[in-house]
């Protein structure tokens, strides 16, 4: 009988092959900083975008790890489709889902998740984008800015979080905003990462009740539940990159002549490779545990997903950096796999909640669980 872990390994191998043979060539033809629509369409053609909405968090982690190993651009394109469209899938009206999700699944419609602002990055509750009520019209006008938005300004629609009233997490509403709404403009940002990131400016952009995702005033819940679903798979993205760096290092140190032998014969090198392997495997196990907890509806999901994202992204940074060190100057040459990974691996420690935010979540949840345990014991 084939055990579950073997099935997962088979799935990873199949996706790696597809990524190398079908997706990598399209990624190489893409223009940095813009949406690679042929690549997104191929993800749809292969049925990979469909899996964003029809499978659990564990499968999403397996998928993202395999894609990241062979083609980080394809992984990121898939993840951004999921992040932008999942709120529509989970909270949208039947009309919203029917209008937008078929195109997302097919790779013809590009989605984006617009939460961060110039003054509200990690502190998502500090949103300043305002939704001003339209007198007598039953709708709102969005005024303000969003910043660091992946796929902006090239997406076809945005899941936008704006303040309709209250302070902090209260009074935030999620809206589905098509890119062609009057008053919505954007500019690309020149970032280290090759995928598109930009700003959005809302100059009295009209939205109505039919554009609300979920309930008015409950948008912060939409944002946090979406992030809880995708944070474990951010860790899986990091694991995929780390595994690619580890495999490249094993190959290089096994054939590189140095000091009268092979690099792998040096104890200092062998120990570093062993440490890399331990961190990759530990990260993978944490990611899988968090995804399984999410799929099971466990009470400790926020803590587990924060742990997975924190450890996996920090571990991947260490592994890729060590791989560069063991390869030497050639790893920093433009076009080398490790040069590419070195640029890609940095951002996941910041987006979808920086490492410091994850530590705060972990500590908060630990104390909450301790208090709950004491309460039940009493």
Automatic annotation (TrEMBL):
Residues 9-107 form the Acyl-CoA dehydrogenase/oxidase N-terminal domain. This is Acyl-CoA dehydrogenase family protein. It comes from the Bacteria. It comes from Streptomyces roseirectus. Belongs to the acyl-CoA dehydrogenase family. SUPFAM superfamilies: Acyl-CoA dehydrogenase C-terminal domain-like, Acyl-CoA dehydrogenase NM domain-like. Its cofactor is FAD. Keywords: FAD, Flavoprotein, Oxidoreductase. GO terms for molecular function: acyl-CoA dehydrogenase activity; flavin adenine dinucleotide binding. The keyword NAD does not apply. Residues 112-205 form the Acyl-CoA oxidase/dehydrogenase middle domain.
């Amino acid at each position: 009988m084939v055990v579950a872990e073997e099935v997962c390994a088979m799935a990873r191998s199949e996706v790696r092959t597809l990524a190398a043979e079908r997706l990598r060539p399209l990624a190489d033809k893409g223009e940095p900083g813009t949406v690679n629509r042929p690549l997104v369409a191929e993800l749809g053609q292969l049925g990979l975008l469909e899996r964003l909405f029809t499978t659990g968090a564990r499968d999403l982690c397996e998928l993202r790890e395999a894609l990241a190993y062979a083609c980080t651009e394809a992984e990121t394109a898939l993840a951004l489709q999921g992040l932008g469209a999942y709120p529509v899938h989970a909270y949208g009206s039947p009309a919203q889902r029917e209008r937008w999700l078929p195109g997302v699944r097919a790779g013809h419609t590009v989605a984006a998740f617009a939460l961060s602002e110039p003054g509200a990055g990690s502190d998502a509750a500090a949103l300043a984008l305002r939704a001003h009520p339209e007198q007598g019209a039953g709708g709102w006008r969005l005024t303000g800015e969003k910043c660091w938005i992946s796929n902006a300004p090239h997406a076809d629609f945005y899941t936008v979080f704006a303040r309709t009233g209250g302070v902090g997490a209260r009074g935030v509403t999620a809206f589905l905003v098509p890119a062609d709404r009057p008053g919505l403009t954007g500019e690309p940002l020149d970032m280290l990462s090759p995928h598109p990131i930009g700003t959005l400016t809302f100059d009295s952009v009209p939205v109505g009740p039919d554009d609300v995702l979920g309930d008015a005033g409950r948008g912060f819940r939409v944002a946090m539940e979406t992030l809880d679903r995708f944070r474990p798979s951010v860790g899986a993205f990091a694991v995929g990159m780390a595994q690619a760096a580890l495999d490249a290092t094993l190959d290089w140190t096994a054939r590189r002549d140095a000091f009268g032998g092979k690099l792998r014969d040096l104890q200092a090198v062998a120990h570093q490779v062993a440490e890399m392997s331990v961190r990759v495997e530990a990260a993978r196990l944490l990611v899988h545990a968090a995804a399984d907890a999410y799929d099971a509806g466990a009470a400790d999901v926020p803590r587990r997903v924060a742990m997975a994202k924190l450890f996996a992204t920090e571990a991947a940074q260490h592994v890729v950096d060590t791989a560069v060190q063991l390869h030497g100057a050639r790893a920093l040459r433009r076009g080398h796999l490790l040069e590419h990974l070195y640029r890609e691996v940095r951002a996941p420690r910041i987006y979808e909640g920086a490492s410091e935010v994850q530590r705060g979540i972990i500590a908060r949840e630990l104390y909450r669980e301790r208090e709950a345990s004491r309460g039940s014991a009493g």
